[in-house]
């Protein structure tokens, strides 16, 4: 475990393999909720919170339940169940504790269960930080840190996209391209510019 | 019988999951680099759709309304695990090139969408044909996108070189190419729809 490893995770998760623009995870929410900056930001913070928490939880489930009992083939089922339960729990807690916060991003929470980014990061952590049926040294910290970085990458892409689409509202675009098609073409150009970061490969 | 055929064909054009309903885009974009990958992903997703539609329509009367989504997810995840293990056993190369997108079929909105919108309200045979039609529609959409990307990005289709002396447009087999192709295709479908109306 050293600083360089963390730096590598940061740069590759935020820029080189940006969760949306290069891995295509969480694309549905990215296209659907990026029309205005404010909801986009609320959605991003909700996604980031769930990704970080579920990275930690799934690490414990895998390390202490699935690995010792030889149940690794149950990975997909157990992860998606844990994530769905966790999201439901967070939703209930937020509704009870802070109605204001609930109004801000409560409605986006149920959507996050089927956001591929959350399960994607959980599976990716296992693929990257477990080798030969054993946890790599410091894998828990790497997993949680990767969760934070993927969340940051998601937020970055959301902010860029919603800023562009807000300005597009005033433009005269061809009718057939309105909304979704144009959003994809913008995402393509954004993704093209993010490809420039792949020169940073470590 | 005629009804069943209608359930089957609606998924292919009229309610195509990718181009009309815009569902399940993550795997569509990520795996459509080559036609081989696209067909593999299409078959896996069709299997999961069929299996989960069948089981969910069988047990639809026993599932309590309030916890139906977790129940659906467990059924879907079971079929995804079966597909994942089979793929690992019979075609390791395909498994490696699809990577994490195989377990991610669980969160493919098409599967959950069909469970929620169709299989939980309809009987066994109709759900079966609905699942099959949606699966075939998804596979065809994947093949269309990957054919365009493979042709422009590497100048060949299924390893068969079509044009000699053609400089491949590399960007089409990279992520930006996927987004561009699907954006333009969606625009084209919109245009065709408005012409028809």
Describe the structure concisely:
The complex is a heterodimer of chains A (202) and B (197). By secondary structure, chain A is an all-alpha fold.
SSE topology sketch:
The complex is a heterodimer of chains A (202) and B (197).
Chain A: H1 3-16, H2 27-32, H3 37-66, H4 75-97, H5 99-105, H6 109-113, H7 116-129, E1 130-131, E2 134-135, H8 139-168, H9 180-194
Antiparallel strand pairs in A: 1-2
Chain B: H1 2-10, H2 25-31, H3 35-58, H4 68-90, H5 92-98, H6 109-119, H7 124-154, E1 156-157, E2 160-161, H8 175-196
Antiparallel strand pairs in B: 1-2
Features:
heterodimer, A: 202 residues, mainly alpha, B: 197 residues, two-stranded antiparallel sheet, globular
Mind explaining what this structure looks like?
The complex is a heterodimer of chains A (202) and B (197). Chain A has 202 residues and is mostly helical. Chain A has one domain. Chain A has 9 helices and 2 strands. Chain A has helices spanning 3-16, 27-32, 37-66, 75-97, 99-105, 109-113, 116-129, 139-168, 180-194; strands spanning 130-131, 134-135. Chain A has a two-stranded antiparallel ribbon with strand order 1-2. In chain A, α4 (75-97) crosses α5. The two termini of chain A are 16 Å apart. Chain B is mainly alpha-helical and 197 residues long. Chain B has one domain. In chain B, 68% of the residues lie in helices and 2% in strands. Chain B has 8 helices and 2 strands. Chain B has helices spanning 2-10, 25-31, 35-58, 68-90, 92-98, 109-119, 124-154, 175-196; strands at residues 156-157, 160-161. A two-stranded antiparallel ribbon of chain B has the order 1-2.
The pLDDT mean of chain B sits at 85
Q: What is the approximate shape of chain B?
A: globular
Number of strands of chain A: 2
Number of domains of chain B: 1
Rg of chain B, Å, rounded: 18 Å
Strand content of chain A: under 5%
Q: Which regions of chain B contain 5 or more consecutive residues with pLDDT less than 50?
A: none
Helix content of chain B: 55-70%
């Amino acid at each position: 475990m050293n600083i360089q490893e963390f730096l590598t995770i940061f740069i590759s998760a935020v820029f080189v393999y940006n969760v949306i623009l290069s891995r295509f995870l969480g694309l549905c929410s990215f296209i659907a909720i990026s029309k205005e900056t404010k909801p986009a930001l609320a959605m991003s913070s909700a996604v980031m919170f769930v990704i970080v928490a579920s990275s930690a939880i799934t690490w414990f489930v895998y390390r202490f339940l699935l690995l010792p009992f030889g149940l690794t083939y149950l990975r997909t089922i157990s992860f998606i169940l844990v994530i769905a339960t966790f999201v439901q729990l967070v939703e209930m807690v937020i509704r009870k504790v802070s109605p204001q916060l609930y109004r801000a991003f409560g409605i986006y929470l149920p959507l996050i269960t089927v956001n591929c980014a959350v399960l994607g990061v959980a599976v990716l952590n296992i693929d990257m930080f477990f080798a030969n049926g054993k946890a790599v040294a410091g894998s828990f910290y790497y997993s949680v840190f990767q969760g934070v970085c993927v969340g940051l990458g998601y937020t970055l892409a959301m902010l860029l996209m919603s800023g562009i689409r807000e300005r597009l509202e005033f433009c005269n675009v061809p009718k057939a391209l309105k909304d979704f098609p144009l959003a994809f073409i913008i995402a393509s150009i954004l993704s093209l510019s993010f490809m420039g970061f792949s020169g940073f490969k470590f | 019988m005629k009804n069943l055929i209608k359930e089957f064909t609606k998924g292919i054009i009229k309610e195509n999951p990718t181009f009309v309903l815009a569902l399940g885009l993550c795997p569509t974009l990520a795996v459509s680099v080559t036609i081989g990958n696209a067909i593999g992903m299409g078959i896996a997703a069709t299997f999961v759709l069929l299996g989960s539609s069948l089981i969910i329509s069988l047990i639809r009367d026993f599932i309590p309304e309030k916890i139906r989504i977790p129940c659906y997810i467990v059924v879907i995840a079971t079929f995804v695990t079966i597909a994942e293990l089979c793929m690992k056993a019979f075609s390791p190369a395909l498994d490696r090139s699809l990577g994490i997108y195989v377990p991610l079929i669980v969160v493919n909105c098409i599967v959950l969408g069909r469970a929620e919108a169709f299989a939980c309200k309809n009987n066994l045979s109709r759900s079966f044909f609905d699942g099959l039609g949606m699966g075939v529609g998804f596979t065809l959409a994947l093949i269309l996108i990957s054919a365009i990307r493979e042709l422009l990005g590497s100048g060949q289709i299924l390893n068969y070189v079509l044009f000699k002396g053609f400089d491949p447009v590399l960007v089409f087999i990279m992520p930006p190419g996927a987004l561009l192709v699907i954006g333009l295709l969606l625009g084209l479908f919109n245009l065709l729809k408005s012409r028809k109306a």
